[in-house]
Amino acid sequence: MGKWHDKSAALQADGRAFIGGERVWAKSGQQFENLSPIDGRTLGMVARCDGVDVDIAVAAARAAFEDRRWAGKSPAQRKRVLIRFADLMQQNVEELALLETLDMGKPIKYSQTVDVGGAANCIRWYGEAIDKIYDEIAPTAASSLALITREPVGVVAAIVPWNYPMLMASWKIAPALAAGNSVVLKPSEKSPLTALRLAELALEAGVPPGVFNVLPGFGAEAGAALALHMDVDCIGFTGSTRVGKQIMQMAGQSNLKRAWTELGGKSANIVCADCPDLDAAVEAAIGSIFFNQGESCNAPSRLFVEESIKDRFLEKALAKVPAYQPGDPLDENTVMGAIVDATQLKTVMGYIEAGHAGGARLLAGGKQSRTDSGGYYIEPTLFDQVDSSMVIAREEIFGPVLSVLSFTDVQDAVRQANATPYGLHAAVWTSDLSKAIQTSRALRAGTVHVNQYDGDDITVPFGGYKQSGNGRDKSLHAFDKYTELKTTWIQI
After folding, report:
1. Which of 128, 125, 133, 171 is nearest to 152 (CA)?
2. Facing residues of 155 across strands?
3. SS (H, E, C) 136-150
4. Any idea what the Cα angle at residue 183 is, between residues 174 and 108, rounded to 5°?
């Protein structure tokens, strides 16, 4: 069957929580079954943590913060540990990639490069950054000295989703740890394995016990307990807008902890008739929506094509769709894998039915595939003649479904693009520099791409406008979430 199937057969996943530097089962003894979306097989049993376990983990994190076993280390010392952590991730790339693919169904080729590679780079980058950030002296009168310093906020809770389990975790824990905080991470119950393994690697790298804890479990139990906990100082959440609203409400009704959210999206990709490279625009439109099975919050799920080039665009797009047919995620040639679980498969298929019912024209896909595998797979799906009032143009599908809309006036395309509660990503393709600048300014989104899609780097912030969230991951701006600004006024 091949290298990765052999490794999969030999895998013995450890589903115990990680608290205070040790692997432990939930105090209640409760466990849940971890199923692989590749073939439906059981990967193992996972600790079902609840409020009792949250109390223990938060107490461990608080004790570690108060005795300054990590916060008290110099930035240069924390830097060395985090770089060692990133090195260990790279040394264990095959194990981490296999866990990621088995857990959530993405192709193994991307688990190795995008997920492990990106996560390790994130940890390393924040390690490198922390001893290069300077505090400030305010320009006061000569009779005083006013210092403005950053301090770690304390105990940080991080709740991350199942679509990029390792990458989303690294975007939270890297700046939080670099700044000197203690962390309690709750991965999604659908994909807990890499987070648990990361905690072991962090300990091996030199992160002291209690500083980085991982609690698998369900959102309504472990997640809610973290959001409501009176001794958690800050919570970072990536996931749905619906749950993000609940997190912020819980933060407010408990201790008014800082709550930072990165939420859903319904990103618009606008291709004008003067697009400088139509083939590149087609490749980006198709490749970006079907990457990660469409399970990306920034996926360009609404494609606006100027009417005069739409037929030519669709002809080129449909020629590329067959290359994204789902395959075995453990085959290194596969570019689109499995939907994360049966629930998400049902959700996506429901939206496809809604597209039919709403009057959209199905041009490709629309069916389940690989049904004999025991896993959850959906064909790459493309709808034409979509109207902005249709369900598939309004709601986040989180699957391999592209909605194509047409326009004759770019200002109208921008108006439709902005007519959504979300504001995560957007794009415009045009040869006209003035049009590119005016359109990018008018689009209400945290990231606007011009003549490309998915351009990204750890140095730029990631987050959205409106109901796509209120925080920014990545870049130096992420430190704003996990630090307090203190003014120290000294009279001379």
Report:
1. 133
2. 182
3. EECCCCCCEEEEEEE
4. 55
Tens digits of residue pLDDT in 1-54: 689 999 999 999 999 999 999 999 999 999 999 999 999 999 999 999 999 999
Evaluate whether 192 touches 161 at the Cβ level (below 8 Å): no
Structure-token pair, residue 176: 């939080």
Q: Is the dihedral of CA 170, 171, 175, 180 positive or negative?
A: negative
CA angle 451, 452, 453 (to 5 degrees): 140
Q: What DSSP assignment string belongs to 206-221? A: TPPTTSEEE----III
Q: What is the pLDDT of residue 142?
A: 96
CA distance 56 to 239: 25
Using DSSP, state whether 284 is helix, strand or coil. helix
Count CB-CB contacts under 10 A for residue 365: 21
Note whether 256 and 242 are within 8 A (CB): no
Report the DSSP pairing between strands 31-35 and 42-47: antiparallel
Structure tokens at 201: 């690697």
Tell me which residues are annotated as active site: 262, 297
Residue with tokens 């790298």: 205
| Pairing mode of beta strands 22-24, 17-19 | antiparallel
DSSP state of 38: T
Strand blocks (E) in 358-450: 361-364, 368-369, 377-378, 381-384, 401-407, 425-429, 447-450
- Distance of alpha carbon 36 from alpha carbon 101, whole angstroms: 9
- Quote the Cα angle for 193-197-199, to 5°: 120
Q: Is the pTM of this model over 0.85?
A: yes
Contact predicate 402/364, CB 8 Å? no
DSSP state of 443: S
Pairing status of strand 212-214 against strand 447-450: unpaired
- How many other C-beta atoms are found inside a 10 Å radius of the C-beta of residue 209? 17
**Dist CA 208 CA 185 (whole Å):** 15
CA distance 65 to 73: 11
Please give the structure tokens belonging to residue 355.
């597209």
- State both tokens at 313: 């665009």
Query: Which segments in the chain show pLDDT lower than 50?
Result: none
The beta-strand segments (E) located in 210-318 are 212-214, 234-238, 258-262, 268-271, 302-306
Is the separation of the CB atoms in 294 and 301 below 8 Å? yes
| Residue 473 CA: distances (Å) to CA of 35, 262, 342 | 30, 8, 30
Query: CA-to-CA distance for 122 and 86, rounded, in angstroms?
Result: 8
| Beta strand 144-152 pairing with 483-491 | antiparallel
Q: Which residue from 329, 455, 303, 309 is spatially nearest to 393, judged by alpha carbons?
A: 303
User: Could you report the per-residue pLDDT of 170-211, keeping only the tens digit for each?
Assistant: 999 999 999 999 999 999 999 999 999 999 999 999 999 999
How crowded is residue 133: how many other Cβ atoms within 10 Å of its Cβ?
A: 13
